[in-house]
Each structure stands twice: as structure tokens, then as C-alpha cells.
Amino acid sequence: MQVLIEESKKLRRASACIRDGGTIHVKLPRHWPRHLKHSVTQELVERLQKKDAKERALLDKATQQETVTITDNEALTAFVQAINAATFQVPLGKVQIGTAKYNHLAQVNLKTKTMTVSRYCLNQAPKEALRYLIVHELAHYFESGHGPRFWALVAKHVPDYRLQSSIMKAFHHQAVIQEDAPSNLPETPTVKAGYTSKPKRPVLAPELSQKPKPAPVKTPQKNKTQKDKTGLLPGFVKQLLLWGEGFTR
Q1: Could you say which of 16, 84, 97, 120 would form a disulfide bridge with 26 (CB–CB 3.0 to 4.6 Å)?
Q2: How far is 164 from 130, CA to CA, in rounded Å?
């Protein structure tokens, strides 16, 4: 697998995930020393490789199961209603397809009785694993948490729920990885780093581009000979000169 490392000064801990059709993305704090970055990266990559190999092995076992593909809310509603009629027979509300990638494969809003199933669980999914996922959500109508009573309800209708849960999680994760592959992503124009230059102004004809310059305004200049020479002297010296002129008169 290809490994891409991204460093950020805002991070405080490391993380890693598999994206883009099988590329491992590792995020590290920039301030960590080099030896720590190397050891943590190696540990995270090995852990993800083991997890990916385990998921693929589970899906290989699930190839014996019948697959099912659901593309719209009507088909999903019919699928859920059939399972509900054979199991809990709860009052169903709205059933819809969601877009959750990383958090919930499916969820139920107990106030509105709305069930949402991620679309990554519905394309050629193992039928028994998908049935477990619906039973899991239907059991939440009686138990909101995941305590012993909840798992007893699930085990009543899906005895091997642990295996089917692992298969469904692996199928969902691999579906997300494959859809994020570069060949399936829309092409986006590459943007070069740096500042973009301002658009050039249109070139006008010479008679339009050369504007007439305004005539310079002449300011009258004082004659240096008419300037009072005493203006350059300190104040007390001017007083002495004026006092002396009074005696000469």
C-alpha cells in the first residue's frame, strides 16, 4: 500500500486511515521529533494493513452468501418491512437511504420512528449481513442501548450476529475505500501554489491611451531681495535692532 504522510502544527496526536482505493493517509504533529514520527507511522501502517487483510478475509468467507442491491427508498422499505414482519413487528415509520461513511452504518430515530441505512451497505451486500443490520436497528425500538437485553433480542433472530456484524462493517469500510479511489473521483483542475497575477488591462489605441496632460500651474515666487532680513534673526536680536533705530531717528 502507498503511504502518504501529512504534518500539521495544529495536531496533538497521530491518526491514520485508508482512503483513495487503498492508500494509507497518516497525519502527524509537526513538532514531534523525527524518530517518534517514524516509529508511530510504522506502527499505524502495520495496524491498518492487518485490519485490511482481516476485512478482506471476512469478505472472502461472505462470498457464499446471496447478495442484494438496493437503489431507492421504496426497495429499502420493502426489504425492511419483510424482515420486521418476520421478527419484531414494530410500528415502522419512514425508511430511507443515507450517506454515512465513517460513523453509523444505520440508525433509528426513536422519536420519528425513522430508519436510515447507509448507501455503502446496499450495493451487492451480503444478504445475511444486511439482514442482521436491519434486525439490529429494529431491536432498538425496545432497547435504546447496547446492553445484555439488547443483544439477547438480536441473538433471538440472528444467532451468529457477531460474525454478521464483522462482515457488515468490513463490507461498508471496503465500499467506502473503493468509491474514494482516484479513478472514481471527478476530475478537478490543479491549482498552482502562490499568488495569482492580476488581469492585464486592455491595450487602447494611441489616441485614446495618451491623455492630454494638464497645464502646470505657476505659483508666484517672492523676491528674495524684498524679504525682510530680520526674519532670519532671533526675536531678542530684532528687538535690539528696532530699539537702536529709535535712537538714530
Answers
A1: 16
A2: 8
Domain boundaries, the chain: 3-64, 67-184
> What is the identity of the amino acid at 154?
V
**Length of the chain in terms of residues written:** 249
Q: What is the pTM of this model?
A: 0.67
Name which of 15, 163, 29, 184 is nearest 102 in CA terms: 15
98 near 119, Cβ under 8 Å? yes
d(CA 112, CA 103): 20
User: What is the DSSP secondary structure assignment for residue 122, as one 8-state letter?
Assistant: S
Own/partner contacts of 177-185, CB < 8 Å, gap of 24 or more, are: 177/18, 177/19, 177/20, 177/21, 177/22, 178/21, 179/120, 180/19, 180/20, 180/21, 181/20, 181/21, 181/22, 182/20, 182/21, 183/21, 184/21
Hey, which CATH number is domain 67-184, 1.10.600.10, 3.30.420.40, 3.30.2010.10, 3.30.230.70? Answer: 3.30.2010.10
Average model confidence (pLDDT) across the chain? 81
Question: What is the tens place of the pLDDT at every residue in 115-144?
Answer: 999 999 999 999 999 999 999 999 999 999
Q: 127-139 and 73-86 are packed helices; what angle lies between their axes, rounded to 10 degrees?
A: 70
Distance CA 244, CA 238 (A): 10
